[in-house]
Each structure stands twice: as structure tokens, then as C-alpha cells.
Design a protein that fits this description.
Elements lengths: L2 H12 L2 E10 L9 E4 L4 E3 L4 H20 L5 H12 L13 E7 L11 E9 L7 H5 L5 E5 L7 E3 L11 H12 L7 E4 L6 E6 L5 E6 L3 H9 L5 E7 L13 E5 L3 H6 L6 E4 L4 H14 L4 E4 L3 H13 L4 H4 L2 E2 L12 H18 L9
Parallel strand pairs: 10-11, 10-13, 11-12, 13-14, 14-15
Antiparallel strand pairs: 1-2, 1-5, 2-3, 4-5, 6-7, 6-9, 8-9
Amino acid sequence: MSWLTEIADEVAEHGAVVRVTVVRADGSTPREVGAAMYVRADAVRGTIGGGALELAAISHAHALLKDGVDDGVRPLAHTVAESLNRSGEGSDPISTPQSRREVRDFPLGPSLGQCCGGFVRLLFEVFTPRECDRLPAIADHSDGLVLRPLDGGPPLHLAADRKEHRAEWPLAVTRAVHDMLSGARPREPVLVRDGKGAPAWLVEPVSPRRHPLYIYGAGHVGRALVRVLEGLPFAVTWVDTSADRFPEAIPQYARREISRDPAAFADATAGDAFHIVLTYSHALDLAICLSLLKRGDFRFLGLIGSTTKRARFIKRLSDLGIGQARLARLTCPIGLPVIAGKEPATIALSVAAQLMQLAAEAGLARRAPA
């Protein structure tokens, strides 16, 4: 789900939310650029690292909600300035009637009582129904980028075409957009400046970067695995043969797929994906593995089971015409050896750790979704 959709949902249900985003992180810091949390008057979702930094950010977000939302008569820039004066340190407010943005700097030293010793710059953005008018339309462009300057109040910009350029975009922003949309640069949040003293722009993907992961089987281990994948950089498709095999509630980050023939479904999946096979049937496991091994374009194929099961599957798959090079890519047992155990929760944790290790080695998990 896009973070823009999440904001629109929060506002529709609760009226207002402040998105607090890390836009600069120097030295030792709790989170990376792009990490975000969402602050409402009565709740907080997500994290920018916890500790005194997060408490200070939440307090300031509450002040913005109180002064900038409850009192819609006074100009927001005036109310932001008042909140800054009350809360102490902070940079100049950045806001206009078109947007509600403000940047604050936090040295992570004695003043906050944190021993990190780094420096964090946070962007505060207030969203109410007024700011959310265009969000659903922007969120539909899941492959696009969201741009906005930190020193002014224009609404959020959408960049969905690498050749697009607007007069108000600095040259460095246009280059960053082109490089991200063309694949020459990773699609991850970045603060862009067009020279010394120039205003900074935040460029970030509409949707967080997630790699396709297919999980075959909605039994005990499948359910435990899906639960522990929350917040990790995977687009989860959960496959089984009937609806009654799934739990009633499916997490938002997972898509349920009912297929009478999971092996045929596997054959039609996207290439370069992760696959975890743990169905209720050895015959079904074998058919899915055979389908994927014939293609050979997967990033990872993991099969639940013992070394004995692997030996039997290797023999059967070899008899079915799969060559040794591809058979060597079948991982069974699954999970990290250092996290051993047969309980579903333990297996799930071990497999999730293995997937994160593989994603990191492939350069796919430098940033987990906020």
C-alpha cells in the first residue's frame, strides 16, 4: 500500500495526521532517510527510531495538530511559529496555505539525552481533508515519485515520466527523477539540492520498494511466516488451493490468491522473485518446485522439509528432466541454521531472517519500508 493511501485513510477516519519523515541523517542515527511515522491526536503509527528524538517529534506534531488544524482561522505559518517558540530549538517554519510543512533539526547529543551523537533533520507535514484532495490520484501511480520543496508551500508533485520536466523543478531534481524512473539510480527517498544555498527538495517513491515474494501454503507455518513479514521489503502473494485454508483476516501487506493449480500459478509469476513452498501436500510441493525449476528465472526457491525430503525431491526432479545446475538452486531445509527449531513461529523467524539476508546481499533491502 502506498504511504499516500495510508495518509488518505488516516484523514478519512480521524480528520488529521502529521507525517514526520527523516530527510537528513548524519553520523550515528536511529533511522535512515525516508523513515517516517504518522502522528494523530490519539495515536502514533510507525517509528523514526524511538527514544527522546521520537518523543520530541511526537510532542511537536501534537502542537501542529492543535494549532494548525483545530484553529483554522489563523494562518498556519503564524501558529507554527508559535509552536516553535514554545518548544525551543528548531529551524524556521516552512508553510503556506497550500501545504503545511516544516523542517526541524535535532542534534542527537546531550540536549536530547541520546548517545547516538549524530544529526537528524525531520520534515513535519500536516494532512487534513484539504491536503488530501489529490492524494488518491497520485497514489494510483505506484511506480511514480513524489516531489516537494522543503522551503515552500506548493502541493505535492507527481513525477511518473522520466522525460517530464516542470519549470519549477530545479535541474538537480529533474536529473534525480530521470535517473530513478530510468533505473539508473535506486528508487529510494533522497534530499536533493541544486547547488549551495539552493532550497532542498525531497524526492521519494509513491510506494515503498518491495520485492515479490510468493508463499505457497496457508497452514501453520505459512500463517506464522506471513505474520512476521510485516514491515519488511517484500510484496507478499499468499497462495493456496481454497479459501477455507486461509485465516479470516489477511494482513494488508499480503495478497491472497486462491488457485486450484498452484503449480500453474507459479509458472505465471514474475521473474526474479522469491518463492517459499510449504503446502499441505508433498505432491503439490513437488509440482510447484518443478514448475519453477523448469523456468529457472527465480531469485530464490525455498522448500520446507528435512535433508531427507530434499534428497527425495532431487531424485524425483532429476528423473523429470531438471539438470544438476538448477537442482542446486533448490534450498531445503529453509531458514538460517543458527535459528533452529520446529515450532511454526521459530521456522517463520528463521525464514524471514534468511530472506532479509538474501535481499541485503542482492542490494534489495538497503531500506525497509517505513
